[in-house]
Amino acid sequence: MWALDYLSNFCTVASTRSKRKPMQTVEIKVKMDCDGCERRVRNAVSTMKGVKTVEINRKQSQVTVNGHVDPNKVLKRVKKLGKRAEFWPYIPQHLVYFPHASQAYDKRAPAGNVKNVTQGFPSSDPPEHERLVTMFSDDNVNACSVM
After folding, report:
1. Taking a C-beta distance cutoff of 8 angstroms, is the pair 109, 116 a contact?
2. Which residues lie below 8 Å from residue 29, measured CB to CB, with a gap of 6+?
3. Beta-bridge partner residues of 46
4. DSSP three-state, residue 6
5. pTM for the full model?
């Protein structure tokens, strides 16, 4: 049986149909003031091919689209409505090393979120004061040579 499957792979004609896009979640920040704005955005996005679900949180100005879609096409469709839209720029605060850095902190961000910016990672070297404390500790066998 497996031999037939193996041989059939060589005999099949290549399909001209394009591969299906992978299932993904697209989060977009869109300024929506009223129910009409929300309805227009929902209708525009939900009629796109491949969209499974559309969730709108008007308080956070967030639109979440799940489905087999291209993120850039979703963003373009929302911008075509005349709305100012961008990909969701925020991530949860606990994922960032320095959430109160000037680039990451945004007072307009929803509670518990900060801007998604690249930050330097904390140094793996111990701080200077820890190195000095261990230099003069009783546990350090070379401490008396320093004194």
Report:
1. no
2. 61, 62, 63, 85, 86, 87, 88, 89
3. none
4. helix
5. 0.62
